[in-house]
Amino acid sequence: MSAAANLERRFATDLRSSGRRLEGYAATFAHEANLGAFRERISLGAFRDALSGDVLALLDHDPGKVLGRTRTGTLELREDDKGLAFSLDVPDTAAGRDVLALAARGDLGGMSFGFLVPEGGESWAGDTRTLTKIDLREISIVSAWPAYEGTEVALRSRRVAHGHTRRVRAIKLAEARQWA
Predict the structure, then answer these.
(1) Please, which residues bridge with residue 55 across strands?
(2) Is the model's pLDDT at 15 over the cut of 80?
(3) Phi and psi at residue 139, to the nearest 5°
(4) Domain around 38
(5) Tens of pLDDT along 138-162?
(6) Is 94 helix (H, G, I), strand (E, B) or coil?
(7) Residue 13: which pLDDT band, with cuts at 50, 70 and 90?
């Protein structure tokens, strides 16, 4: 079986935009994801070894919609105490323009990452898997719902939504997840 067939994907929702640059977190450490058959969390340091490789930034995990990559410097990744932070220079392509327009409207669902788990890179406690080492292949800007919650999509250059607006949006997202 090929590595692509074994590639796992997880979602987060921290995304900010300023000009043609998107920034945020593709994964966070503080939240546990309920993946149906099991729960999952990511340990601090899990991405450390993967940051030296060539990682792609994609739109909706589509390899035909490359938005950047670490090898060219258009995608920068770093791990901090919160999670896997990224900074992406969005290209002036159809996919890039779409991403920026959706970010400006607040319509993006968040971020995701595609990965493999190397041998010894996970531990289990009951039905909870903890990822301790991740072979990161790509991060993606997605329009779907995140598996890893706890952050939110925001356009950095716009005024932050007031409490009522944020609560209404949170309720709508929660309702949408029921049907996903």
Answers:
(1) none
(2) no
(3) -115, 150
(4) 3-179
(5) 999 987 665 555 433 333 333 334 4
(6) helix
(7) low
Q: Coil, helix or strand for 167?
A: helix
Residue 126 is predicted with a pLDDT of 94
Residues near 164 by beta carbon (within 8 Å), at least 6 away in sequence: none
Q: How far apart are CA 157 and CA 167, in angstroms?
A: 21
> Could you write out the DSSP letters of every residue in 18-76?
ETTEEEEEEEESS--EE-SS-EEEE-TTTTGGGGGS--EEEETTEEEEEEEEGGGTSEE
Q: How far apart are CA 56 and CA 75, in angstroms?
A: 8
Q: What CATH number does residue 78 fall under?
A: 3.20.16
DSSP state of 143: S
- Contact predicate 38/129, CB 8 Å: yes
Q: How many domains does the chain have?
A: 1
The rounded distance, in Å, linking the Cα atoms of 146 and 14 is 10
97 confidence band (pLDDT: 50, 70, 90): very high
Residues 6+ apart with CB under 8 A from 81: 29, 44
42, pLDDT greater than 60:
yes
End-to-end CA distance of the chain: 28
Which letter does DSSP use for residue 169 in this model?
Answer: H
Cα 137 to Cα 2: distance, rounded to the nearest angstrom: 14
CA atoms within 13 A on the CB side of 112: 21
